[in-house]
Structure formats: structure tokens, C-alpha cells
Amino acid sequence: MNFAKHSNLEGQHAFLSASGYHWINYSEEKIADAYAKYRAAQRGTALHAFAAQCIKLGQRLPKSQKTLNMYVNDAIGYKMTPEQILYYSPNCFGTADAISFRKDILRIHDLKTGETPTHMEQLMVYAALFCLEYDYKPNEIEMELRIYQNDTILYHKPTIEDIFPIMDRIVTFDKIINSIKEEEE
């Protein structure tokens, strides 16, 4: 049998894939809802890439109370770096949407394009990763975390009581995972 070559599809996954077979039990409404969420996630990925490019180029968007415009313009105004990886170990790292550290002030901004309620804990993990990677104590710097979603901005100024326990968990849990990995070898 000479199987057809689909080299243009290698490395891709169909929405109705065999590996994600649960859709075979969905109703018509549920498949429509699942596909709408899938498309929204794709749109969010594209908007993040667009925002990162605007920030890198210093290209401001028209001033408005729209989520994307506020996020891009604020990131440019604060001279932030978009899509910055924060790394503690192979077990714990993440990508901050936009980050800056100047004059002992850490700023981390997150762009949310979906409707799901957000949680500031994600940004506090980024702050903990920053402190661990660059060897800062959270009580020695100021921090401002922002979530941009639904045409509003949520602000949080975490304290050492917020960030230090997360740093401690990262270090502790990383050791546990590394211990398990060593036992598997």
C-alpha cells in the first residue's frame, strides 16, 4: 500500500482528532461550543503575538478604553519587554506577557483575551520566578501586577507575605520533583 503523504499536516492536530476522541460523544451544541472556545483560544494567541510585536516596535494603538489598546500602550509607556521567559528550573518556568524592572520596581502585565475570570496568582508566580531567577528578595523591591481583561485593569501590589510562600513552594516542589526523577533513573 502506498499511503498518501500529507507533509503539510505533519506536526499539526485536527480539531476532530483521534487522540482527542472525546468529541465522538458530544452533542451538536457541545461540539459547537467546544469549537467556539478553540477558535477563541486561537484568536487569543494571535492577539498576544500582535501585542508583542507592537510593544517590540514601540507602535502605540489609538488611545481608548479597549483592553488591547490599554495593554499595548501601557507596556510601551513603561518600556516593558514582551513575552519574557522567567526560569527557575526545567520543572518551573513561565512566560510573562510583559515585564519590566527599573528603579527597584517590578511590573508584570498580563493580557487576557477570554471571558474566564482571571486570577492574580498567575502573576504572583511570575513575580516569584523573577525574584528567584534574579536573586531579589520580595521585600527589597516594589511590585505592581496588572491584568488587562474586558476593557478593565486589575491592579495588585503584592507584599513579601504574598510572594515569599510561592518562592518557597517553587524551591520545595522542585526538589521533590528532582528527587522523583533521580529515583526513576
Written overview of the protein:
The chain is α+β, with helices and mostly antiparallel strands and 185 residues long. The protein has one domain (49-180). It contains four helices and five strands; from the N terminus they run H-H-E-E-E-H-E-E-H. It has helices at residues 28-57, 67-77, 121-134, 160-184; strands at residues 81-89, 92-102, 105-111, 142-149, 152-156. Strands 1-2-3-4-5 form a five-stranded mixed sheet. A hairpin with a 2-residue loop joins strand 1 and strand 2. Helix 1 runs parallel beside helix 2 (67-77). The longest helix has 30 residues, at 28-57.
How would you concisely characterize the structure shown here?
This protein is an alpha+beta fold and 185 residues long. It is built from four helices and five strands, in the order H-H-E-E-E-H-E-E-H. The protein has one domain.
* Average pLDDT score: 95
How is the largest sheet built, in terms of strand order?
1-2-3-4-5
Helix coverage percent: 40-55%
- Gross morphology: globular
Uncertain segments of ≥5 residues (pLDDT<50)? none
| Structural class based on helices, strands and sheet pairing | alpha+beta
Q: Based on the structure, what is the oligomeric state of the protein chains?
A: single chain
* Number of helical regions: 4
Amino-to-carboxy terminus distance: 41 Å
SSE ordering: HHEEEHEEH
Strand content: 15-25%
Outline the biggest β-sheet: 5 strands, mixed
- What number of domains? 1
Radius of gyration: 20 Å
Kindly state the number of beta strands: 5
